[in-house]
Automatic annotation (TrEMBL):
PANTHER family: GPI MANNOSYLTRANSFERASE 2. Its EC number is 2.4.1.-. This is GPI mannosyltransferase 2. It is found in: Endoplasmic reticulum membrane. It comes from Galendromus occidentalis (western predatory mite). Pathway: Glycolipid biosynthesis; glycosylphosphatidylinositol-anchor biosynthesis. GO terms for biological process: GPI anchor biosynthetic process. Belongs to the PIGV family. Its main location: endoplasmic reticulum.
Amino acid sequence: MGELGYVVKLAAGSRALVIVLQFLCNHFVPDHEADAFRSPLVKLEQARWSSGDNLVHYLFEGLNRWDSQYFTHIAQFGYTYEHLVAFFPFLPWLMALTSQILQDIFGTVLNPSSWILISGVLISNISFVLSAVVLYHLTRLLFIDRHFPLKVTQLYCFNPASIFFSSCYTESLFAFLTYSGLFLLEKDFDTLATIFFAASSITRSNATLIPIFYLFKIRQRFNRGKYYFGLIMRMVLACAGNVAVQLYFWERFCFPHPRTQFPEAVHTYADRLNYKIVGDEALEWCFNLIPLSYSYVQAKYWNVGLLKYWEMKQMPNFVLAMPILVLISHFCRSEHYRRLQRYCVHAVILCCIFVFFANVQVSTRVIMSATPLPFWAAASAKNPTLVWAYFIWYFFVGIFLHSNFLPWT
């Protein structure tokens, strides 16, 4: 078996382990009654679930927690509530498409929510295996040590945020698209790289930082007196998806739509939790000079803003995020900085956003899906035992907590 075959088997095996462990944790430990979003329409559908539906949810419900609830709801019912615009549409669209294909093949043996859940789990775990392969090739391209890519891939397969890379989250899909774009950009396949980056920009908001890599390449070409205007155009197109998503939300939430398009359960749930429903009326952010829905709902529903998270009660979350921040900081102050400056600048800006603006506890999973640098840093560490202890501890604890609706990174 060659190295590439080993990478595929390791990645697939690690996902199988996560799926088995989440089932065991979810089966033997009672769920925490979290104050989290749960789709009211799935609850309505639950009354007509078959034994097959119950089995699907019994097996995979530990992968349908927290943000997964948003993505599965959007995939099945669309953007019904204002705060759902924090979740970009590419993953839900793929889930809906895959679910429809499965229904066309197997018929109505399961209800839609079961096919949606199966689709989300399939997409995340297949994307993870593909992202591991791309990470291996990208690392081989940038590092001379022939053993280094395997060390990096091993760490990636058991990374601290592993549960999110198997759940119905965007982490695996975004990692695959972003790592692929980076690899293609390094290989000078600029147009193909732009296509992958454009797809990543309708997957997660932090794709807006992708132009950093183009700017470094533009500077490099400028210094060599080479043509770079086409690269500027590709840089714009690489993050155009973010603009397209905002325009889509602007049309959906800022103009009248028939109230009758949703069942009464949607409105009852909205009234109970004070949610705004699409189409009821133009929302507050619609009248801003630049009507950006994302920044508005992040501030309103998740307290995102400059130093807003700097409270004593949030100290445990800063401690939880500290290892990834220290790894990146140490790596980017080492001899690797000059050679990998573009990756360091990108990663450090991401870290600063989470430390000073966003919910810091999510930095581990978001940064690890947005850049390969944490894994290069971990594989380069002088104390690999300590690094592996951190990775494995977070790997198991994360699965246990997340699958039982307890907060994690």
